[in-house]
From TrEMBL:
Belongs to the Clp1 family. Clp1 subfamily. This is Protein CLP1 homolog. Residues 13-103 form the Clp1 N-terminal domain. Its main location: nucleus. Gene3D superfamilies: Clp1, DNA binding domain, P-loop containing nucleotide triphosphate hydrolases, Pre-mRNA cleavage complex subunit Clp1, C-terminal domain. Keywords: ATP-binding, mRNA processing, Nucleotide-binding, Nucleus. It comes from Camelina sativa (False flax).
Amino acid sequence: YGGEFGPQIRRVKLEKQSEFRIEVQRTRPLRLRLLDGGAEIFGYELPHEVWFTFPPRMIFAVFTWYGATIETDGITENEYTSCETPMMSYLRVHNSLLVERHRSTSSTRDSVPSQGPRVIIVGDTDSGKSTLAKMLLNWAAKDGWKPTYVDLNIGQSSITIPGTVSATPIEMPVDPVEGFPLDKAIVHYFGHTTPTTNLRLYKSLVEELARELKQESFGNAESRASGMVIDTMGFIVRQGYELLLHAIRTFNATVVIVLGQEETLVNDLKKDLKFKKSLQFVNLEKSAGVFFRGSDFRKTLRNSNIQNYFYGVTNDLTVYTKTVKFSDVQVYQIGDFPETSSSTSARRRGNDPLKITPVAIDEHLVNKVLAISYAKQPDHQIISSIVAGFVCIKNVNTGEERITYISPSAAELPSKTLILGTLEWRVT
Ligand code: ADP
């Protein structure tokens, strides 16, 4: 973003327990730094006098517990200061989770420390679920814990591209610009942005992830005691509600945080989970700062999320354009989904939603985002294996039998097996 900064530096003084809410412009980034006092961005403590560059469209808040002065450089799309925040109630939840974590380290069963709190955050779209998850994780990491972040929100994924079910250990507070680190993440590709495209597959991937995390936690006492924070979809009715129940049970959650005044949701969950005696429910107020994102904006966000994967949040990654022969790859789809199956017979009811089907390579793959699977066999392993990363198909030359794709990695594909969903990406 060279050359775009300089003349518009302003100071903003924040009173204790207030926050400065900012929407970065659509086309230009914004720089910001902390001058005096203490301030945090969703639980990430800002160091003094270090400029952070926030990319266009980012929406966030700088909160201070005891007062702070910050400096901004650039014009914002929208900004205001508010003293009304639910931060005290969020911090109280964090403190009770700390108690649970200490309790797990001191209580061992068969010399394995017991598991720390498994918190699941539920609520409507735009109730601030991901933001609260980030705060709880950042505060825990600041206190020396290493909780796991589980992201089940395929519509607006936080760890990697949309359409994924994933988890990552949080070993230090998450950088407010770069977001969650990807290097230790376990990622499964669902391939669609709405679960109804293949409910059975979505559930299977959630179960796989829970199983893998359970296995990993046995060998890692620190992560086991730190517990998890699970982020969910804003789809809380009908099948969405069933999926919430499924996630709560699959991860054996200990705390359900319901964000926003979702009375019916709380009552239904309490009724349906009444046999889980140890399950705690916490109602938390939604922050007035949470930005309402209409469906168009959410679509734009999904697109920029995929763009960030290939080009970096601040456009700092090199994207590689590569060509392979048809015979170098095998493309599979899991189950049946209407957009790619042209034959009516394939759309017949009763199809196996977990069936692995080879896909013919032709022009319909152009702009599709494919996952690179670690599966060794083209069978159920495609569902149980995690993925190495993603490519986006740019061209299919059926004459020469060559596929051109982009990838954030210069290396050859780590596997021949690619998974196709309905997710697409094109330069906007
Ligand atoms: P959900 O996960 O429930 O869909 P998010 O946590 O992703 O909601 O929040 C929606 C948007 O609102 C995000 O862009 C987030 O950065 C922004 N946001 C959340 N809390 C605040 C706040 N206090 N001030 C300003 N923006 C906020």
